[in-house]
Amino acid sequence: MVFLLLITYPAITYVQALTAPGAATFTARTADWARQMGAGPIVNALENRYYTRHPPANSAPSADALPVPVPGPPGAAETARDPTRDTGNSPARLAALPGALPGEGVWVPGARAAGGQPADYTTFLSPDLDHASVVAGPAPPSSTPT
Questions:
Q1: Which of 101, 136, 138 is nearest to 121 (CA)?
Q2: Which 3 state secondary structure label does DSSP give 112?
Q3: Are 137 and 145 in contact (CB under 8 A)?
Q4: How far apart are CA 140 and CA 119, in angstroms?
Q5: What is the pLDDT of residues 1-58, one digit of tens each?
Q6: Given its phi and psi angles, is residue 132 left (phi above 0), alpha (psi -120 to 50 degrees) or beta?
Q7: Do residues 95 and 81 touch, judged by C-beta distance below 8 A?
Q8: Taking the model in full, what pTM does it have?
Q9: Using the 8-state DSSP alphabet, how is residue 129 labeled?
Q10: CA-to-CA dists, residue 146 to 53, 89, 141, angstroms
């Protein structure tokens, strides 16, 4: 009976983590859940061991593998392809490493608010010269309190 009581909370939270909305993989959801349950050092050790034995590729990702902006209202797709068509409120371009991929560090408007203004911006960076296949999607700092 005691065992049943001890296992109930982790079981419920694990099922919630696996069924939460989003596109994360089973492995990513499991790792995030384990970190939330206090097993962060164990997850970090396992990830470090895995990536030491299976490093990311050294070739740049193909253009279709790079992040794509969220579609917005009419005209947003054209703005996403041409960042110069933004309303002028986008964050400053991020500094990129030598050999940057096309569009790297350029903030592109994503979803639009009711008034047509961009509600968010997206970009990507290649943070590691030794592993060009790794890209990161930073979030711009907000100028308004949440």
A1: 138
A2: strand
A3: no
A4: 11
A5: 788 888 999 999 999 999 999 888 999 999 999 999 999 999 999 999 998 999 888 8
A6: alpha
A7: no
A8: 0.55
A9: T
A10: 41, 18, 11
